[in-house]
Amino acid sequence: MFVARIRITLKPKVNDPQGQTVMDSLRTLGFLCVTDVRIGKYIEVRVDEVDKEKADQQVRTMCDQLLANPVIEDFQYEMSPV
Q1: What tens digit of pLDDT does each residue of 34-50 get?
Q2: How far apart are CA 67 and CA 80, in angstroms?
């Protein structure tokens, strides 16, 4: 069994209104050193598979087909045994 720790972020050129709102709020609170905030998603998926390559392929397919929108998002993940 493996666990995949997936990070999904907006592509650099995609506008991030949620990140902008958080940045504005941080600056209002006095954190003037903040110059940019990007909001993303973190997902953990446990895969009941013995073969790491098969588990890796399944996680990549999950990201491509459902978890990330390939038009506006990038994803990265780490796979480790449970």
Answers
A1: 999 999 999 999 999 99
A2: 19
- The domain of 22 spans 2-81
Q: How many domains does the chain have?
A: 1
Structure-block tokens of residue 57? 């392929």
**Whole-number Å distance between alpha carbons of 32 and 62:** 39
Find the CATH number of the domain harbouring 48.
Answer: 3.30.1280.10
Per DSSP, the three-state class of 3 is strand
Q: Residue 29 has what pLDDT? A: 98
Query: What are the structure tokens assigned to 2, written together?
Result: 């493996």
CB 67 within 8 A of CB 6: yes
